[in-house]
Amino acid sequence: MWEHVHDVVVDNIRYRVRETGTGSSIICLHGVRWTGQIWNGLARELMQHFRVVAPDLPGHGDSSVSVDGYSFSVLSDQLAGLLDCLSIAQADFVCSSWAGSLGVRFAAKYPERVGRLFLIDGGYFAEQSVPNANWEAMLGGDLPEEALNGFAEYFDFVRADDPQFWNEDIEAAVTDQVRLDASSGRLVPYHGRYRSLGNVGLPERSSLADTVLVLEHPDLISVSYCGKHGCRVPAGAGHGLLISAKL
After folding, report:
1. What's the Cα-to-Cα distance from 230 to each of 7, 47, 120, 157, 225, rounded to whole Å?
2. Residue predicted with more confidence, 161 or 57
């Protein structure tokens, strides 16, 4: 499905990048626990008219860890470097969940590089308002042990979020979230490599000024399953698989 899967080195980061199609560029950024595989279905829809680029963000999938940390400011600078390496001066951005905040910060910091910005259930929730929130709580503790017994159990766990939207593309993306540990015979989260930096805490949120600046952009579209910030919400769609819906 992806015509070109390759590695791009930006400073100290090695990005795994998926590309397909030709035309103006659309950069697709995934959320925590996912990889660029989550955009399989969207890429198939758009590849006849656009160049679709889906990187594994630092510390996820087959990209390397970020030795400079995971603040959205640092990630924005790294993303700008990736665009330079791909010879992309400006692009439209589709950002899911956690990457919504990255999209907001990037658009505020590099407005000349952003055409349209699509936020899918992210970019507006103030995680810092949650006492003692940290990456450890988001990345491991909330996965029930029974869900890691095997791929069938893990599929059932994730599919429960949006059973009516489950398809082969989503299954491929979910498969890319975990790896089978040969010693234990159980699944382990593949994104866990960047936890080697320790409990780095949540990256800073985009400032209110940044958010207001981006929200004034005429080409911002935000979609949310909770209905508070969205423009169109498919019935029954949950956070994890919302991007699989035909919006």
Report:
1. 34, 25, 8, 26, 7
2. 57
